[in-house]
Amino acid sequence: MTSPDVLGQDVLQALADAARAVPGVDDAAAVARKGVRAAEPVRAVPRPEPGPGSAEAPVAAADDVADMVAADEAALPAADLYGGDIDIPDGAPTTLQEGLRLAAELAPDKGTVYITAGHDDVLKTYPELLDEAQHVLGGFRAAGLRPGDAALFVFDDNRGYLTAFWACVLGGFVPTPVAVATTYTSANETNRKLRGAWHLLGRPVLVTDAATEGALSGVRELWDEPDVRILTVEELAGHPADQDWFPATADSPVLNLLTSGSTGVPKCVQHTNASVVARSMAVAQHCGLTGEDISLIWMPFDHVTVAYYNVRDVFLRCLHVNAKIDHFLADPLLWLDWADRYRATNTWAPNFAFALVNERADEIRERSWDLSCLREISNAGEPVIASTSHRFLELLGPHGLPADAMSPCWGMSETCSGVTYSRQTLDDRTAGTVAIDPASLTGTIRHLDPGDPDAVVLSRVGRPIPGVRLRVVDDSGTVLPEGRMGELRITGRTVMAGYFGNEEANREAYDDNGWFRTGDMAFVRDGEVVIAGRLKDQIIVRGINYMAHELESVVERVDGVRVTFSAAAGVREPGAATDQLVVFFVPVSWDTGALARTTEEVRAVLVRESGIAPDLIVPVTEAEFPKTASGKIQRAALVADFRAGRFADRVTGAAAEEPADDTWFFGRQWVELAGNAGTTAGENGASGVRLVLAEDDDLDRLDIDGAVVAVRRGDVFAAQSPVRYRVPAADRAALRRLLAAVTAQHGEISSVVHALPLSLEGEPAERLTAATAELTALIAALADGEFGHPQVLVLTSGAMYARPGDRVDLGVCALPGLVRTAISEAAPLPVRQLDLPADPGTWTRAVHAELADRDRTGLVAARQGRRLEPKLVPLTEDTEDTAGAAASPAGQPVTPGGLYLVTGGLGGIAHDIAAYLVAGFGIRLLLVGRSPAEGEKAARLTELSRLGQVVYEQLDVADAAALHTAVASAEDRWGRPLDGVLHLAAADPTGQWADLEQHTLVNETAKTYAEQYHAKVSGTLAIAQILETRPKASLVLFGSVNGEFGGHSFGAYAAANSFLTGFAEHWHHERRRQVHTLAWSMWTGVGMNRGQSSTAAEHRGFRTIDPDTGLRLFLDAAALPGPYTVIGLDLRNPAMVEELVPQQLRVSEVLLAFVADGADQEALRAAVAASAADCPVPVRVAEVSRIPRDAYGAVDAAQLLLDSAADRPARRFTPPQTELESALALIWSDALARPEIGRDESFFELGGNSLRATRLLALTDQKLGVRVTTQELYERPTVEGMAAVIEQHKAG
């Protein structure tokens, strides 16, 4: 499978041309069958396998590497870097004890500020920290701890953690932090790690805070170890201060850090005073830090954070501001609030944190901070993505953030955190990065232009700090020259003393010369290190390390997984913010249901026991699961097959799941049109005059060149000159007179620019009525083709919300529904709507671009010099609001016991939803409708009243005063404010099915528009009035997919529903209100659709929704973020697939369809073989009876794909059996452009749609004198069925 953009139109054209050249082939077309992307293969980045170490590590001479590098590389410097000596001032502390003592003496006003949620921030000065630590030291000694003893730290409270940490420093005990587990009543990865460390370290005490103690005590029962000792820092602090410190030396152990081990027991990285002090001194020297700096940290202390920042800040004697990661994750922009409030000069976070901030782009633009104080932001802990860094700098530059504040950094627990630093800057986006050819990663690195599509951009992590030496070596341990990929090794004063109690790990970790093997693949460029990946079987996700074998052991516990046949791997796609966790497994059963259950259980058990959700889960066969002869899993081979797309049809996961029948929800996303037109209007090669309907001011702003006839509004038709007219713009007869006059005077009309919507005045409903009348009059005047088929360009401004900052004009936001209806009804008249940006100074260029692209139809928004079109993207409950504005609050979309207004009366869907909410949520319900509660409706009201508290008011939803009175009365009645409104009121359009032709835009009456706009437009505006004084009330608007796609013969209904979309965008983005428009496909068996055929809707790609499903979907949809959701598209329909954003699509095959009369198929296949060889996906050749084409003459790809679907039953032709059936078959053949029609073939399966239905019924009436309704056709859509209907008409 491949991306749609990889498969160019030239490939398809070459295939079709080759087929047409074969004798006997009458017609041919090649189209791409697209589906929704399963898993996009990522580019393979080959990584050399590690080799054995060497006793010597000499720098390789040119002769030694001549077979690996080109001759001109032999003179390159060796990839052996030294950061220089550490400059240690006289009197500098040599232990952490001395560091704290000096901080307390020399900086008594400095210390740590603890940021607390919902409370005042707390400053603990260094003297206070020392005093409290001495009290806790007394407690430790009273509890029997001796110098050298380890203490396992399990803290939720950072203040308690740091106090206990420094108490251990004073007493010579060794703090060993572990994260707080989600539970201690059942085993999971975190509490297993704690248990492993407890045994490794000799069953030490567990130290925690009072709030965590209760849950942590569960380990006694969980481990069956009743003697586990747990101490709280609060209890320890109650002891008298002990000022008799342990006589620490540089070699005294001072900190243990746990990393994953190969046996399930964690490895314990042990640091001494020497390594921690050296790192603190070196980084201060390297980065130019002083006591005047202010540090800001929110990363958890079970990480290496305590050495990375807190200890360093004690040595600097500077202010340290400390928050919790939970605060940041709840609101990433708090990070910026803190930095501004405390004037932080430096901070640190992994790459994922910057990505989270970047997602709040719109809010960042509206907020205000002064970040000029932030000189250095360390980006470390996981791969540094340059594009994420640059975006962060770009967004925060307007808030004063220095352009070069971003500092990529590399380090690990074994090196006492970061030991290399680089710089990335917004002023030079190549600084701190390299662009390389990924295929060169096995040898000499080939550098590419950053704009090269094959380039992978990696971040440089810089040069080593003082006291640290780095080198890149090959698998024999020989130092490589710069520009060659190898393993990164390190030595120096910051490196750990070793793994505690694990000599085997120490032997493997160090080479014979004492250099530590980092397990990272790297190369050097211009004296700076570039990290390219991991050598070891570690997976780094969002800054946290996981061992593959540990995750695999968890997966294997799932019943449906074959034992020893699971693999976990970290895969990072280019540009991704973090690694993806991909889990492969061989299932016990490939039964669809069993496989689905196993996949879900794999996901659940990893979340429950390891605290990580896999990004992708891939079931494979035993034959596809590679192992060595000794049984070792070959993860690299699995990843290579994954990247090659071998498993793409089986991948499941949050980002790559194939939408199935449960994909109900879709959101709108604006994407850039490919091949943006850049020519002027005069360069498009079109002949003829341009007719521009615009007021004078707008005509000047548009500045359309070429032969132009200008038309302004007027009360009567008037020709002021051969090139200037006035016309009543809503008068169809006057417009036809205008077209006739212009054609007679100037000849062919090439384009009609309808710019009158730009100058409408009045209230939104008034402007919409006027805009509707003028646009439909113009379409009606052009529809019959008497004046040719000129390009029709409808200009608006504010009709569409396409980019953050747009403002929606409620007077024209309904026009997209009319335009899309016109496209289907008026073909081959090419109609397009161009929504112009707010700045009139950009209009000329935007309009010229559209006039240069003559054949496109649909909607285009011009923004910032780009042409955008609306597409759809599948939504899930995890989807975030990509529009960049305030999303609806997460959680329950209905407040239990709340007061809700529901419009739509006692009929159909409104009644069903009202009953659901009253019974299920106990809401107080104010139900309003235009009809009195009589007869059946009275019975329904009684039924509702039995369920709960319900009041019905008969009123017009467009009457704001009546609404206000009813709502105020309900609020008084129930003693609570209105919680929300569900607006379901609508005019019933189903009567239009009886005469579709009468309701096309050409024939539709003003009365129908008024009826449709009354509830949807005027009613919504009236509801908005009552909600102005109720800012916390939510609003859910019930709309239709017709608003998104238009509706043949339902233009008024489509426009009314388009208004709901525009209103929701306006209220959400501009007013910051909680609002959601739900654009439904067809509900069946209820309301206005009761008894209606669903065949036409299903053929268009709209799924039917039964009432039970609809009620379930309502709550799920209302809880999604963003203001607009389309519900119920069928992604099995090729037409619907084409509506999705390109990034969601894949091409699974190319269909080469041909119509032939005696052609040799083998000759045809041979003729297209050469072109097929260039195609990146399989080419399927199929003979068809015809190539369907649309009204514009283009191949109807969606219908061709439906006709030729591989799983479509072969067509069985049954000839007509009666004279009437034979006559009807001829009429059908004419209407559907098919040579023959069988008596039992479905109108829709033959390519029928509402436009062709109109033509078919007109021909039937004309030739047989019988008027069959659209509904009758849809209910009995075959020649046989229509014949029976006609016989009934004749009999009746």
From TrEMBL:
Residues 1215-1290 form the Carrier domain. GO terms for biological process: fatty acid biosynthetic process. CDD domains: A_NRPS_TubE_like, KR_2_SDR_x. GO terms for molecular function: adenylyltransferase activity. SMART domains: PKS_KR. Belongs to the ATP-dependent AMP-binding enzyme family. This is SDR family NAD(P)-dependent oxidoreductase.
